[in-house]
Every structure is written in structure tokens, then in C-alpha cells.
Amino acid sequence: MLPLNPALAATFRPPVMEARRWLAGLTFPPERPLINLSQAAPVEPPPEPLRRAMAEAALERADAHLYGPVLGRPELREAVARDWSRAYAGTIRPEEVAITQGCNQAFCAAIQSLAGPGDEVILPAPWYFNHKMWLDMQGIRTAPLRCGAEMVPDAAEAARLVTERSRAIVLVSPNNPSGAEYPAETLRAFAELARSRSLALVLDETYRDFDAREGAPHDLFADPDWGEVLIHLYSFSKAYRLTGHRVGAVIASPARMAEIEKFLDTVAICAGQIGQIGAAWGMANLRDWLAGERAEILARRAAMAEGMAQLPGWRVKGCGAYFTWAEHPFDMPAPDLAQRLLREAGVLLLPGTMFMPEGDAQGARHVRIAFANADRDGIAALMQRLEAFRP
């Protein structure tokens, strides 16, 4: 057998792909179709005007088919810098923005610029599994940080995890998988901790467009020296339904951007041009449409919270953005429950064990429900099936 990279071999297989394998050999009758709540991604294509703009670019713009700048198309970098400066009441320059192949690549680039084998990164648990997988692959130790009330981590608890090998703290808000929206004071406390201990604060705001709160979720960009601490990540996938085009962004200091450029050039050279053109067009033309998307997701969130409150024994720990993180009432571990729900109720969701340290008892007690993939009728059907489920 050919040799395997031990760090890569040691991490787990992609959870969403694992859940899809559970579907093998199963069929679902027309009167009770599958309710797939496993993956956090829009199930509809981008709106037609955006598709037309991308199609026109493909037909009429030669540069849409060529290599572009490693750090992204200038017009998209400028749009992000301008809009983020306004939204966060700070100063962000285009040279502090890089466009990546999705937010996962933005995370990988950020971590690659920060840490190497034997170093440590603090992740709140439950965590986004791809973050944990990348750290595993790089030989970087994950230091799990337990979340407290309403699934919000505490900076004082994180301080106890810092060692001489610590390089960064990673936060996701609104959170995947819990949906929790971290208060501005929480993010400020983590930024101050990071600054005091010479760490980076990597803040993934993939779901910022679906935050239920009005206004900026934090004021970290208002600090004139934010680049000494903060690395911000974003994805255009959810806002403009561009999942298949893989367009994300990382915002960091110019010095760090020079390191990130090395990674991006080696891994992909550049993000796809048509996706970047689409993202820039969406930012310029779809503000009202995106507001409607946000209103719809918030309505689904309300329907989810209301429905779960009526289910005997279930306990919602977090609900927001695309997700509900819930404690189930059954005397079985979450992986067994997830597969039985699929076979017996036609519901596909992910067990909490996919988001927690191996062997963690809390993982076995929880599930993640990606409710944004279902409309309100679908959420009502979900509640009926969960209520009727009798293992």
C-alpha cells in the first residue's frame, strides 16, 4: 500500500458526505419526501438577474476565462473594503482584502499564515467541523473551549487555555453549528484577550447577512490598529447563492496579506473569475433582494423556534442564522438517532458528535438542524415527524 500522510489520515471523513452515504438504498414515498436538513447551503440558484450578469460576462468578457490577480479582482476587493468600512464604522483598504475560493479556503489561508505543526488553536465547542479537519491535517492541536449559556463562549475561560504554543482563537458568529449570535461585548473581550496574549482573533462571519440584530455586530474594525489582532473571514455563498462558484474573502493586515498571497498562489492561483464578477454585481445591485432573503431566513428561524418549543423533551440550545442546535430526549447516542430519523421519519440531520471532541458525552446528546434549507411548510412537516417519532 502506498504511504499516507498520517495527519490527513487521522482526521475524520467529511461529515456532510458521510450523511449522504446514509441515503444509499433508501427511497422516500411521494406523500412523505425526504426533509434534508444536513447541509447549510442554499438549495435554489442565484436570482435570474445575477445569473444573466454572469452569463453575459462569460460570453463577452475575455478576462472572465483567464487567470486573475492572486488576491482577487480589484473591483470586488474595493467593494468589500468600501461596504465593510461603512457597515462596521471602520477603515478597511482594498489591499487589506483578498478574495478566496470560498470561506473554507479563507480559513485555511489564515491558519497557514499563523501556525504550524505542534502549535495550538482555540476553538469553541461545538465547532465547525471543517475548521477542526484543517487543524488536524496541519498537525495543529485544537484546544476545545466549552460554550456557556446560549452557546456563547467566554473569554475568561479561553484565557485558561492559552499556552506558549497558542497562536489563535477562532470564533464563528452567527455560529455554525449552534446559530448563536455572539454579543459585541463578547467579541470585544476576545479581541482584548488576543491582544494581551499576542494571539490572532480569527472571526468567521459567513452568516453575517442573516444576523437578527440591526446594525454592526461589533466595533472591532473601528480600532485603528485592528490588523494587529483581527483576521476576518466571509463567504458570498449564502448571501447570493453562489455556493458552486466558491467565492469568499479574508480581511487582514497588509503584512499578513503578503503571507496569505503565497498560500493562495500555491493552492489555486486565484478564485474563479465568473464567481467574482457575480459577487461584485450582487453587491452593487441586490441590496433589496438580500434584505428579502434575510427576512425569509428570520421567519424560518421564528417558525423553527416556535415549533421546537412545542416538542416534548427537546431542548433548543441555540437557534439563528441557518441552524438550530438542540438536545434530544432519546436514550440513544445522536449518530444512532440521526440514522433512525432518516430511515423511520425521512429526516436527515447531523448528529452533535460531528461537531464535538471524540467521545464527548454532549455530542451524543445533541443534533444540528440546518433549518434554512426548509421553507415554513417544510418546518411544519419536520415538527410533525419529530413529534410522531417513537424509537
UniProtKB/TrEMBL annotation:
InterPro entries: Aminotransferase_I/II_large, AspAT/PAT-like, PyrdxlP-dep_Trfase, PyrdxlP-dep_Trfase_major. Its EC number is 2.6.1.1. GO terms for molecular function: L-aspartate:2-oxoglutarate aminotransferase activity; pyridoxal phosphate binding. It holds the Pfam family Aminotran_1_2. The keyword Nucleotidyltransferase does not apply. Gene3D superfamilies: Type I PLP-dependent aspartate aminotransferase-like (Major domain). Keywords: Aminotransferase, Pyridoxal phosphate, Transferase. It comes from the Bacteria. Its cofactor is pyridoxal 5'-phosphate. GO terms for biological process: amino acid metabolic process. It catalyses: L-aspartate + 2-oxoglutarate = oxaloacetate + L-glutamate. It is an enzyme of class 2 (transferase). Residues 34-386 form the Aminotransferase class I/classII large domain. Belongs to the class-I pyridoxal-phosphate-dependent aminotransferase family. This is aspartate transaminase. It comes from Paracoccus pantotrophus.
